[in-house]
């Protein structure tokens, strides 16, 4: 019985080491060295091969090596094979760090101070209390909840929006399309942690920006195609929005000459907010395999109808 890994080979070697320690009975294979295709029961991939079942007839589970699965062609994986998103503490920790630094960058006026530094200007701005800066997270799954848990400790008034109702301690929760405008109207720093689906593609556009309070900011750590680039530039240039910190873009890499690169109110990072950490990721995958073998539900199984 074997486990096939199809993604970055350098990280694959780290996965292999961890598997050798933690699951010596399960042969670990790195694509394209698949060994006996009939022996492969589990596949972990950033993108599965085109027709995985034709290639691997005894495949039982497909694991995504990333938190998002929009890069998967779900139609190529037959419905009886569960597809599992990566939920592991390493990704969560990285995302909490990234979003916290982004919110503090905006909250402590570092865009203004970067401009002042370029102009060699020493001028203080009044420091606003965290209690007067309302943050809101779009998408309150595992990552969104962990981010809110940290931001709450700074004293930022926290809200979250999700497709279906949720309740979180110390967080004002909004749910569904009908509540989106009310959520946006109370949000000074908007953090997008939504998965990419048909209904979130292009969501971060003029309609959403107009519903935010004037001078709000955006932290985009979802997926590039959720953001309407022209609408963001227009909102920043009119002063409707103050600033944006973008970790994901469309396309990636962001091409040279794209107006985002040089915009003084945009900060770009190259999709590094958070990444799966091999050690903890392997532990999460092995725990799910144990659940699967015991006939228990795995954690992070994708609901194909909703697309994440
Ligand atoms: C990265 O963006 C991921 O989906 O893990």
What do you see in this structure?
The structure is a single chain. The chain is α/β, with parallel strands linked by helices. The chain folds into 2 domains: 105 residues, Rossmann fold, CATH 3.40.50.720; 179 residues, 3-Layer(aba) Sandwich (Rossmann fold), CATH 3.40.50.720. Helix content is 33%, strand content 17%. It has 10 helices and 12 strands. The strands form 2 sheets. Strands 8-7-6-9-10-11-12 form a 7-stranded parallel beta sheet, with helices on both faces. Strands 2-1-3-4-5 form a 5-stranded parallel beta sheet, covered by helices on one side. Helix 1 packs across helix 10 and helix 3 crosses helix 5. The longest helix is centred in the first third of the chain and has 19 residues. The chain is elongated, with a radius of gyration of 21 Å. The protein starts with a strand and ends in a 15-residue tail after the last helix. Glyoxylic acid binds next to loops.
Summary, kept brief:
With 308 residues, the chain is α/β, with parallel strands linked by helices.
List keywords for this structure.
308 residues; Rossmann fold; alpha/beta; binds glyoxylic acid; seven-stranded parallel beta sheet; single chain; five-stranded parallel beta sheet
User: In the CATH hierarchy, what is the superfamily of the largest domain?
Assistant: NAD(P)-binding Rossmann-like Domain
- Fraction of residues in β-strands: 15-25%
Lateral arrangement of strands in the main beta sheet: 8-7-6-9-10-11-12
CATH class of the largest domain: Alpha Beta
* Number of structural domains: 2
What is the C-alpha radius of gyration, as a whole number of Å? 21 Å
Instruction: Summarize the main sheet.
Output: 7 strands, parallel
- Find the count of extended strands (DSSP E, 2+ residues): 12
Classify the fold: give the CATH topology of the largest domain. Rossmann fold
Uncertain parts: none
How helix-rich are the residues, as a percent range?
A: 25-40%
Q: How many helix segments?
A: 10
Q: Determine the structural class based on helices, strands and strand pairing.
A: alpha/beta
Q: Please tell me what the overall shape is.
A: elongated
């Amino acid at each position: 019985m074997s486990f096939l890994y199809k993604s970055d080979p350098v990280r694959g070697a780290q996965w292999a080491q961890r598997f050798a320690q933690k699951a010596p009975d399960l042969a670990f294979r790195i694509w394209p060295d698949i060994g006996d295709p009939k022996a492969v029961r589990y596949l972990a991939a950033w993108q599965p091969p085109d027709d995985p079942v034709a290639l691997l007839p005894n495949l039982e589970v497909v694991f995504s090596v990333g938190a998002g699965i929009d890069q998967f062609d779900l139609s190529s994986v037959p419905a009886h094979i569960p597809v599992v998103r990566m939920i592991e503490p390493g990704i969560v920790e990285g995302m909490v760090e990234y979003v916290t630094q982004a919110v503090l960058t905006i909250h402590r006026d570092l865009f203004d101070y970067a401009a002042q530094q370029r102009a060699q200007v020493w001028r203080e701005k009044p420091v606003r209390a965290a209690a007067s800066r309302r943050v809101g997270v779009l998408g309150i799954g595992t990552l969104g909840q962990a981010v809110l848990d940290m931001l709450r400790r700074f004293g930022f008034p926290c809200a979250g929006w999700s497709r279906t109702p949720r309740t979180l301690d110390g967080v004002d929760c909004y749910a569904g399309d009908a509540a989106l405008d009310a959520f946006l109207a109370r949000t000074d720093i908007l953090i997008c942690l939504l998965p990419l689906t048909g209904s979130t593609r292009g969501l971060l556009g003029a309609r959403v920006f107009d519903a935010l309070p004037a001078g709000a900011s955006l932290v985009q750590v979802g997926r590039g195609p959720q953001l309407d680039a022209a609408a963001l530039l227009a909102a920043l240039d009119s002063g409707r929005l103050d600033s944006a910190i973008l970790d994901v873009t469309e396309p990636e890499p962001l091409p040279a000459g794209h107006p985002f690169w040089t915009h003084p109110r945009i900060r770009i990072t190259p999709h590094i907010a958070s990444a799966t950490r091999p050690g903890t990721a392997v532990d999460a995958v092995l725990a799910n395999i144990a659940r699967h073998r015991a006939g228990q539900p795995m954690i992070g199984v994708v609901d194909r109808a909703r697309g994440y």
